[in-house]
């Protein structure tokens, strides 16, 4: 029996444990936080059963992925780059509208975000470029330009509809360039350019938000959108305005401005003046959930703010975790992501070849950075971004794709050649951790 399980759950055992702990927390908290979905659907078990089914599908895909040898990931790079560009362009032109964002595409009856595929593709391409251009003194200067050539257009295609995801992958690629020992002058130049782009983006947001003819979209738009029937997620006015020339790309400027202004609005308000119905509803209910947690929390399933907090099962699930499990639960979740990053670093350090090391670190950095984004938003350290908590938030294709990323890391831990291992040593004799 143990041998059979060992043949299925191959790779680093600590990462497997982290994965299962995250899944357990996910099922419990999604079950608790999906009260709004159960109320509208009339089925108490439906949301969590659907989520558990997606996690099982992700587990299956992860097992398939970890059985693929690391060297075959290189073969998929050009195909994934082409596919990512096609999907991103098609999304920008005619993406499916959901929660005021045209970031979804529909294929064979399924809706998914091409940006999720593009994120992994950029990490894969960057790892391949960095590994191919390594010298004794670090990466060749050409590596920087190749990475920009491949990744920058994708990031620019993602940004209009999903700015936070564009920033997330840009930060991940930058960290990979640091790990890949790209010349410091080039790193400084890209940092300076990034700072300039942030300033330009702020100007863009505040200028075009004034030009936007649509009605201001409050931060609580997810609540209003979700309350409508499928197929009527946008009001007629918003839908018409989104189709107007110029608004096709700039229609989210008002939402971005609202979130930025809300984040920097530090005015202290009395408790009876807290905005629980307007644009600050998500932030307000998240703060209430965290404030009521104390050390031990109110216990699993006993959250009160889940009934009022929009996207409690997704973007703000960390606030519900804190409310129900207290500070101990909050630190446990954060610690699991730290362990994932640490173990991946150990795996990368043992790899004899650069490509698997860069790929594993890039994927782990992307997952942990996204988790950091989500947690910082929940506790009020960042503006609302709409980034789910990886492997915990309720999701569809994004959860499955995150499982593929974990499966890739496990494949590298299982098949990548260890540094210092004799050539005559067979792969089967290398123990899995």
3D architecture notes:
With 433 residues, this protein is mainly alpha-helical. The protein is built from 17 helices and five strands. The strands form two sheets. It has a three-stranded antiparallel β-sheet. A two-stranded antiparallel sheet has the order 4-5. Strand 4 and strand 5 form a beta hairpin. The chain starts with a helix and ends in an 18-residue tail after the last helix.
In brief, what are we looking at here?
Helices cover about 65% and strands about 5% of the residues.
Amino-to-carboxy terminus distance = 18 Å
- Number-wise, the strands total 5
Largest sheet: 3 strands, antiparallel
* Oligomer status: single chain
Topology readout:
Blueprint (H helix, E strand, L loop, with lengths): L1 H7 L4 H21 L1 H7 L4 H21 L4 H24 L1 E3 L2 E7 L2 E3 L1 H19 L1 E2 L2 E2 L1 H18 L4 H17 L4 H28 L9 H6 L9 H8 L3 H4 L2 H12 L16 H11 L25 H34 L3 H25 L18 H19 L18
Antiparallel strand pairs: 1-2, 2-3, 4-5
Helix pairs in contact: 2-4, 2-15, 4-17, 5-6, 5-7, 6-7, 6-8, 6-16, 7-8, 8-16, 9-13, 14-15, 15-16, 16-17
Describe this protein with a few key phrases.
65% helix; mainly alpha; disordered C terminus; 5 strands; 433 residues; single chain; three-stranded antiparallel beta sheet
């Amino acid at each position: 029996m143990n041998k059979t399980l060992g043949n299925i759950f191959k790779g680093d055992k600590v990462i497997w444990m982290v994965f299962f702990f995250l899944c357990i927390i996910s099922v419990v908290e999604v079950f608790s936080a999906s009260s709004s979905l159960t109320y509208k659907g009339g089925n108490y078990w439906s949301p969590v059963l659907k989520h558990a089914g997606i996690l099982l599908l992700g587990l299956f895909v992860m097992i398939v992925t970890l059985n693929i040898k690391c060297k075959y990931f290189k073969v998929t790079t050009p195909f994934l780059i082409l596919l990512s560009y096609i999907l991103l362009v098609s999304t920008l032109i005619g993406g499916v509208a959901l929660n005021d964002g045209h970031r979804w595409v529909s294929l064979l009856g399924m809706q998914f975000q091409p940006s999720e595929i593009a994120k992994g593709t950029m990490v894969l391409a960057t790892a391949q470029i960095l590994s191919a251009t390594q010298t004794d003194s670090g990466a060749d200067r050409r590596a920087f330009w190749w990475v920009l050539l491949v990744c920058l257009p994708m990031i620019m295609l993602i940004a209009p509809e999903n700015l936070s995801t564009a920033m997330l992958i840009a930060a991940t690629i930058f960290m990979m360039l640091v790990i890949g020992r790209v010349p410091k002058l080039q790193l400084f130049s890209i940092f300076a350019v990034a700072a300039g782009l942030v300033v330009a983006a702020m100007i863009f947001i505040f200028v075009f938000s004034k030009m936007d003819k649509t009605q201001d979209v409050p931060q609580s738009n997810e609540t209003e959108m979700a309350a409508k029937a499928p197929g009527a997620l946008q009001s007629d006015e918003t839908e018409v305005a989104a189709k107007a020339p110029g608004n096709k790309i700039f229609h989210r400027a008002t939402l971005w401005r609202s979130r930025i202004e809300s984040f920097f609005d530090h005015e202290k308000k009395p408790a009876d003046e807290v905005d629980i119905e307007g644009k600050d509803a998500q932030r307000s209910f998240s703060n209430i959930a965290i404030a009521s947690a104390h050390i031990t929390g109110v216990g699993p399933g006993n959250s009160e703010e889940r009934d009022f907090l929009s996207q409690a099962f997704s973007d703000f699930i960390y606030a519900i975790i804190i409310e129900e499990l207290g500070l101990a639960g909050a630190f446990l979740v954060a610690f699991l992501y730290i362990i994932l990053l640490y173990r991946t670093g150990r795996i990368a350090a043992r790899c004899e070849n650069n490509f698997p090391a860069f790929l594993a670190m890039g994927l782990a950095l992307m997952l942990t950075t996204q988790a950091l984004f989500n947690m910082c938003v929940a506790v009020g350290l960042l503006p609302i971004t709409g980034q789910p908590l990886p492997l915990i938030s309720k999701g569809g294709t994004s959860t499955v794709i995150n499982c593929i990323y974990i499966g890739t890391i496990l494949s590298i831990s299982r098949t990548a050649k260890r540094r210092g291992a004799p050539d005559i040593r067979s792969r089967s004799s290398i123990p899995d951790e």
